Amino acid sequence: MTHPSGFSCFARLSLCLSLPALAVGLTLLPAEAEASRVVYINTEPVTVVTGSNDPAMNAINVNGYTETDFDGWAGATPEQVQEMFHLLRDVSVEFDIVFTLERPASGEYDMIVYGSADDHAASFGGTCSVQRGLSDCADGGGVSIGFMYWGCLGAADQFDPARVAFHTLGSLGYGWGLENISGVGQIMASWSATALKWGDACANLSGNAGCTHDGCAGGQQNSTADLLASVGARVDDGPPVLTVVSPQPGDDVTAPFDVVVEIDDAFGGLVGSLELVELGVDPIVDDSWPYGWAGLNVGAGPLTLRVSATDADGNVVSTDVPVCVGGGCPDTGDTTGDTTGDTGDTTDGTTTDGGDEVFGDDLGAGDDEGGCSCASEPGSGGAAGTLGLLGLLGLGLGLGLRRRRR
User: In whole angstroms, what is the distance from residue 60 CA to residue 134 CA?
Assistant: First the structure.
C-alpha cells in the first residue's frame, strides 16, 4: 500500500516509517581478504546510534529508528555462534562474501546486530519483525547495518543456528538489493526445513516490487543472479589451512579414540577427510563443521592418520600423523608428520600441522516471522562415512566409527 507521506509499504505490516527525501573457534580477519563484501557478524552487545549509514561507527540513517543498546545474541553458546557462522559461509560460498566474527580493523564492511524483542520495541517498535535491513536496489548505496531480532522468534527457535543464519542472510539481502519472496523454501521467503539457501530461479515477490531484477519479469526476483551481479562470484583465495588438534604426531592413543581437526578458509564449502593408511580403506569424509571423527576403534600397533582438507575451489592440503595404538610400537624416529598441498593445478603448497525504505510484511503464509526492509538516503553436514569390515577381517582388526557429536 501507499503511505500518506508518499512512500510504500507492504499491506500486511502494521508499521510504516516515513522516508527521507530521497567464536571460541576459528575467526577470519577480513582486512586481509580482498572480497567484494565483508560482513561483520556482531553477536555481542552493541549500541547502534543515528547518523550516517556507517557500520564502523555503529550508525544508521533511517527515520523512525531510535538509538538502542542491543543485547546481542544473548544466551547463545559459543558452539551455537560458531555453527551459525559456518552455515553463513557454506550457504553463501558461491559469492565473493567474507564473513567474520571480529570487527575488521580497516576497510568497509556490512554489519549484522542481534537483538531481543525488547530491543525491537526500543529501536523500531510495532510488529516484531525478525529481520530488518536497509532497502538498497542493486546494492547502489554501499555498506549498511542489518538487524536480526532473535527475540521475535518462538522460544524453541531463538537459539537454532540454522534459523538464525536464515534470518541473518535475509537482513543482509535487503542491503544487497533483494526483496521478500512469496512462498517458502529459500532465503528472502518464509522458513522451511529446506529454506537455508539462495534461490536460483525467478520467483514471485511478496507485495509490490520496489526494485527491478535483471533476467526476471516484473514482480519477480532471482536472488542468486542478483547477488552475482552486485556482490560477485567467489575468487579463489588459495588452499585452506588445516590444523590437527589431536592426536599429535607420535602420540600413544588408546582405542577408541577421536581425531579432531580445524579447517579454515575465507569461504565455506570445506571438506575434511581421514584415511587410515595401513588399513587400506577408503577415506572417511566430513563436510560440515565441526570437523573430526570420533570413536576410531582399531587394533594395536602403528597407524598413520592421513588428514586432508579441500576447499570450494578444489585446493587440497594433507598431512600424515603417525600414532601408536595401544602402546609398545617400535620407534620410527618420525614424530613430526608430513604435510603436502595441492592448489588444484600443478602447484604444490604446504601448511603447518598442529593442529530490511520500504517496510515489508510477514515472510509468507504459515510463517509468524516478519521481515522488513528500510530505505535511507542514497549515498549515505555431512555424516561421516562408514567403513566396511570385510576388508579388515583378514588383518585381524575391527574398526568402528561414529560421527563426532556437534
Answer: 9
Q: Residue 174's closest CA among 160, 162, 188?
A: 188
What superfamily does domain 241-354+386-403 belong to in CATH?
A: Immunoglobulins (2.60.40.10)
Cα–Cα distance measured from residue 94 to residue 35, given in angstroms and rounded to the nearest whole number: 12
A 10 A CB-CB count for 396 gives: 7
Query: Are the C-beta atoms of residues 27 and 102 closer than 8 Å to each other?
Result: yes
- Report field, pTM of the whole predicted structure over 0.90: no
At 239-297, the pLDDT tens digits run 999 999 999 999 999 999 999 999 999 999 999 999 999 998 899 999 999 999 999 99
Convert the pLDDT of each residue in 353-373 to its tens digit.
333 333 333 343 335 566 766
Where do the domains of the chain lie? 30-235+356-374, 241-354+386-403
Question: According to DSSP H, which parts of 103-160 are helical?
Answer: 117-123
CA dihedral (150, 156, 157, 161) positive or negative:
positive
